[in-house]
Amino acid sequence: MTSSGGHDRLTSWREREAALYRVFPYGGLALGTLLALVAPAPASPGAVPTLAVAVAAGCWVAWFVTLHPDWQSRRRPMAVYYAGLLTFAAALVAASPWYGFFAWIGYIHAFPVLPGRWRVAGMVTTAALVATSQGGGLSVVVSHWLLWLVLVLFNLLVAGSVSWFAMIAEQEDVKRRRLMAELGEANRQLTETVQENAGLHAQLLTQAREAGVLDERQRMAREIHDTLAQGLTGIITQLEAAEQTRDRSADWRRHVDNALALARESLTEARRSVRAVRPETLETARLPDALVELGGRWSALNGVQAEVATTGTPRPLHPEVEVTLLRAAQEALANVARHAAASRVGLTLSYMTDVVTLDVRDDGTGFDVTGQPAPREPGGGYGLTAMRQRVTRVGGELAVESEPGGGTAISASVPALPGGAG
């Protein structure tokens, strides 16, 4: 608002200045003519010749200034105009000293119509004419040339001071115009940038929304794999074992009970996965204890000994890190049960300064990790692929070592990000 007000005041002042530039010559000419008629000079050529020159001077100004205002920006017509203006002023001052009021217009018109150093020449000539007028005319100046010279210097001093301030004001005006133009351009660019940023913001929101949907889909896919898929696979395995032992009541009942327990556990874990809650085992126990419990349940279900060991000093980790390690252990044990035909499994959880590592080893059939893909899960999923994605998601690494007949070793290393007290 302040800038707009200043700009309006500046525009108003320029309009008034332009009006004075056009009106002053007629005012000075009219005042000089009136005084010349009322109090004629002793050596005046007469009223008629003086009026004729005054009318010609007025017509000269009218033609160049009033009728053709657009000529002010054209150097050659304005040079002709200013030369004629001073010529008429000299003739009128010679006829009557009162026309010094008209000669004074030379100061005002020097800056708008003359370029560079020509302004100085115009001001010196104007100062000489005004000094002649102030000295009483040509007849007096000739006999008192020293006084005339002092008057010329005085007029030059006054006009030079005024002109210097005018030049400073003009330079400031040029700077102000340039700054206004730069500010307008900056505002235009800022508007374009704001509009562009608004578009980018909308695009980023769309991308973030799509990324969030994709991330949630991937999370649900992992959770379904780690809960429902593994649980259903275990249930099927236990029911198949029950079918094979239907003649042995105790074994049949054990397999059915295991299948029921797996179904309940899978249902609970599925509900917790939908709500994005940590596995129940991590809610009630620390990670080493949860792995011991997992190994015990797995051994009971599959009849294979699973030994769980912890090295280093256990400490609470970030919930996502603990969930990742627990899910990796579940997946590794599920793969052993489905593919390895192992007689022993070992799980080692190692706490180090910056890294926590889970190693799962078995003495099963193994596979060729370089020449063949990892064993594919029933239903089309890849257990190791899902495990690697989960470990990589928290900034960890998964290493698999295996060979046919030599068992398999899986190592999941994740950053030891601290968590709350557990």
Supply the key terms:
alpha+beta; Heat Shock Protein 90; 5-stranded mixed β-sheet; iron; transmembrane helix; two-component regulatory system
Write the layout of secondary structure elements.
Blueprint: H1 2-38, H2 47-66, H3 75-95, H4 100-103, H5 105-113, H6 118-135, H7 138-143, H8 145-244, H9 249-274, H10 280-284, H11 287-302, E1 305-311, H12 319-340, E2 344-351, E3 355-362, H13 383-393, E4 397-402, E5 408-415
Parallel strand pairs: 1-2
Antiparallel strand pairs: 2-3, 3-5, 4-5
Order of helices and strands: HHHHHHHHHHHEHEEHEE
The portion of residues assigned to helices is: 55-70%
The fraction of residues assigned to DSSP E strands is 5-15%
- Biggest sheet: strands, sense, closure? 5 strands, mixed
| End-to-end CA span | 61 Å
- Work out the number of β strands: 5
Shape: rod-shaped
Number of helices: 13
Q: What is the radius of gyration computed over CA atoms, rounded to a whole number of angstroms? A: 51 Å
Structure classification: alpha+beta
Detail the poorly predicted runs: 375-381
Please list the strands of the largest sheet in the order they lie side by side: 1-2-3-5-4
- Mean pLDDT reading: 77
Cofactor: [4Fe-4S] cluster
Subcellular location: Cytoplasm
Catalytic activity: ATP + protein L-histidine = ADP + protein N-phospho-L-histidine
Protein name: Oxygen sensor histidine kinase NreB
